[in-house]
Design goal:
Two copies of one chain form a homodimer.
Chain A lengths: L1 H13 L11 H27 L6 H7 L4 H7 L3 H25 L4 H17 L3 H6 L7 H28 L7 H13 L1 H4 L8 H14 L5
Chain A binds a DNA duplex (30 and 30 nucleotides) through helix 2 and helix 4.
Chain lengths: ~220, ~220
DNA sequence: ATAAGACTATACTCACGAGTATATTTAGCC
DNA sequence: GGCTAAATATACTCGTGAGTATAGTCTTAT
């Protein structure tokens, strides 16, 4: 406690006082704590959902896994549905970042696509992967469902754009972007169904194999 | 009723009487009826599961869709879990038939694989597709789960074998059969998530596109 | 006709799980 | 040192849905 207030004063003396309570003040530490705890709740939920399925995981289960009781969980999220949504979003963010980052790059579409695929694989293999794939419409209210559809659609559009551009810049064979995007998304999403983090094979290995497979195809060359 | 017994006698006169009640006897018609009704129960369940998800579909929902009450449904299946399992099995059968049929063929592995893929796509796009993909472990008792895993594994092994043979007979590029099988299964399974039978695109079209994509890959040739 | 059995409906039980009302503790603040 | 708010727990409510006990109806066989 003493050290905390010391840091607080030091930070405050280096810069003019901000309007609110200073950064590194105990209250700031508390909100950071809160965020960390919230993240833990979401991550734990993701793991439980993945292990037992959404409907077979009760909030009591999640609370128990956190060594806590149900109302505590409700202190961090509004309801079960939002919990799933947050898991979904956590995983999605990683993919979206890759898609956006790559949108600015000037590299050939082929390389940009490979990068997105790699990140995609990592996201799907993460704790949140299952939620991203399984957060299907039927588990969520129409409002949430719309949100998720919109977000998923952005990824889909990103993939299609890359495939299209690859056709234009000559780095990829011309083909139906819609079908190709579906095939790629399917292959990668499916990773969530079989991948286990047992050390033999990590997500980037899988990504590399898949990238090669989609690049070269199965026909002999 | 009169016509039924007439047919029964006719059939019975053409051949020596079988030990039990003759084929086409009313009792036989009844068991056929029973099977048809049972199939209807399973098919309806598959549609409802696909539309609303397994856990969001109550047996009352299914009964209502059949214009019937819950105990009637229980007259044809033991419980909800078995209902899902039957849906799974109905879809799976189509794929397994293709895999087995192709195992005897002497055609190059490339062609045999294409045939399996096509059947696979049709099965996944059918009413049962959703159940095949979603009948995940978490919804089923350990015993059922094992059964399903075993059946799925047969398909997986079938795919791997074809890919392997393609490497040997020169009809396919040599590659990691496990990864390739996962990628193919994923791409096709994912069809259940986006395919809608709206006439624009039928399952064989999708299959053709996917077969081409996996054959040629994305790189320019 | 009537007994046997297949089929279907009515009207329940019962457990489980989401969500909450309320109390209690803990930590920062003046 | 007491006040306030955040954090956590205890102990509920309440709906829903799987599965069933029981009874009625309809068909076929004798």
């Amino acid at each position: 406690m003493a050290s905390r207030s010391a840091r607080s004063r030091k930070a405050a003396s280096a810069l003019p006082d901000p309007p609110g309570p200073s950064l590194w003040s105990p209250v700031h530490l508390r909100v950071r704590d809160r965020e960390r705890k919230r993240d833990a709740v979401i991550r734990t939920a993701a793991r439980e959902f993945r292990a037992r399925g959404y409907h077979n995981t009760s909030l009591d289960d999640i609370a128990t896994a956190l060594n806590v009781t149900k109302p505590t969980v409700y202190h961090y999220v509004q309801n079960k549905e939002q919990l799933l949504f947050e898991c979904f979003r956590a995983g999605l963010r990683q993919i979206m970042e890759a898609v956006e980052q790559v949108a600015e790059s000037k590299a050939p579409a082929r390389e940009r696509l490979a990068l997105v695929m790699s990140r995609y694989a990592q996201a799907i293999a993460s704790d949140f992967g299952w939620c991203m794939v399984q957060a299907e419409n039927q588990d969520l209210s129409p409002a949430m469902s719309r949100k998720i559809k919109a977000l998923k659609s952005e990824i889909d559009q990103g993939l299609r754009r890359l495939i299209q551009q690859g056709g234009s810049d000559g780095s990829l064979r011309r083909c139906d972007p819609k079908m190709a995007a579906f095939a790629i998304a399917g292959a990668f999403n499916w990773i969530a169904h079989w991948y286990r983090d047992d050390g033999k094979l990590d997500a980037t290995d899988v990504a590399d194999k898949f990238v090669e497979l989609f690049a070269l195809g199965l026909d002999p060359r």
